């Protein structure tokens, strides 16, 4: 009996064991695979490569768009410059050029007497030379030479150039402390005047201190612009005196400026601005 029961128990155990194996096989067969869960390593690598390739293509497209936009802006800027040049110089003919050169030479090339020597505008080297130039060449060029037999109509230059408004005399200055004096020579020099720059420009009142000739006016107030000169680029502001269409009145104004020492050691540039119209060539000329 005991043997039969043991055999029965053994048979039951075998059946249970086989059932567990069968269940285990069923469980294993129904477990979701890594492929089903989307965790396939090779698939992740492929997606990573695709993402990187897409990013590179997007960067390349953006870079190409930026380059095309830059080229487009460059072409538009070049076209704009060409249009401006055509508008500026397209109407400048030979007659206009020679008329303007005639007026330039009238002021720059004409000689004046300083003692026993002759000078012109190009070799002015002293304050007294400037006043001699202003009282002779400048006055005679604007209003005619009284020693000539030819009569000049008031308000005209060389008969054919009508002055539009009164000429303007303007200067720019630098401060008397615009440069550094060496310590060894400070007891010998109390003032120092540097070359012109916007940082060194003098904007304070001087002389009588009343009127535009003695008080500073900004470039915006004068509706002016910078001037590229021989030694520097000078601002469009400064101290100015509007002259007159009348010769005698202009001489009186120049005398007042001279007596009150309008031109000083700090003066770095003096400008004579005027506008004329020539009916023969139908042109308005601006000269500085």
From TrEMBL:
Membrane topology field: Multi-pass membrane protein
Region (Disordered) residue spans: 1-67
Compositional bias annotation for Basic and acidic residues: 1-28
Subcellular location: Membrane
Compositionally biased region (Polar residues): 30-43
InterPro entries: PKD_2, Polycystin, Polycystin_dom
GO MF annotations in UniProt: calcium channel activity; calcium ion binding
One CC-aspect GO term: membrane
TM spans (from-to): 74-90
One GO BP: detection of mechanical stimulus
Protein biosynthesis is among the record's keywords: no
Keywords linked to the UniProt accession: Membrane, Transmembrane, Transmembrane helix
Major location category of this protein: membrane
Disulfide bonds: 179-192
Domain named Polycystin: residues: 120-283
Protein origin, superkingdom: Eukaryota
Record Pfam families: Polycystin_dom
Transcription among keywords: no
Recorded family membership: Belongs to the polycystin family.
Listed name of the protein: Polycystin-2
Protein species of origin: Zootermopsis nevadensis (Dampwood termite)
């Amino acid at each position: 009996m005991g043997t039969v029961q043991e055999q029965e128990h053994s048979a039951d155990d075998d059946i249970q064991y086989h059932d567990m194996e069968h269940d285990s096989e069923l469980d294993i067969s129904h477990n979701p695979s890594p492929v089903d869960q989307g965790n396939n390593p090779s698939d992740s690598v492929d997606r990573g490569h695709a993402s990187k390739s897409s990013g590179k293509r997007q960067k390349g497209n953006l870079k190409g768009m930026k380059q095309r936009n830059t080229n487009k802006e460059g072409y538009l800027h070049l076209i704009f410059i060409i249009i401006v040049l055509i508008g500026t110089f397209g109407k400048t003919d030979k007659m206009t050029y020679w008329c303007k050169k005639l007026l330039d030479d009238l002021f720059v090339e004409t000689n004046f007497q300083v003692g026993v020597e002759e000078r012109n505008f190009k070799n002015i080297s002293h304050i007294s030379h400037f006043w001699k130039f202003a009282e002779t060449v400048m006055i005679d060029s604007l209003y005619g030479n009284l020693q000539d037999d030819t009569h000049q109509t008031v308000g005209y230059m060389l008969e054919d150039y009508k002055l539009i408004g009164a000429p303007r005399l303007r200067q720019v200055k630098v401060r008397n402390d615009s440069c550094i004096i060496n310590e060894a020579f400070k007891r010998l020099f109390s003032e120092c005047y540097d070359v012109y720059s916007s940082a060194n420009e003098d904007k304070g009142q001087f002389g009588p201190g009343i009127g535009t000739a003695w008080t500073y006016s900004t470039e915006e107030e004068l509706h002016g612009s910078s001037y590229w000169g021989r030694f520097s680029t000078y601002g469009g502001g400064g101290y100015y005196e509007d002259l007159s269409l009348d010769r005698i009145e202009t001489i009186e104004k120049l005398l007042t400026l001279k007596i009150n020492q309008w031109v000083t050691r700090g003066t770095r540039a003096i400008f004579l601005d005027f506008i004329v119209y020539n009916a023969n060539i139908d042109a308005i000329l601006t000269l500085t």
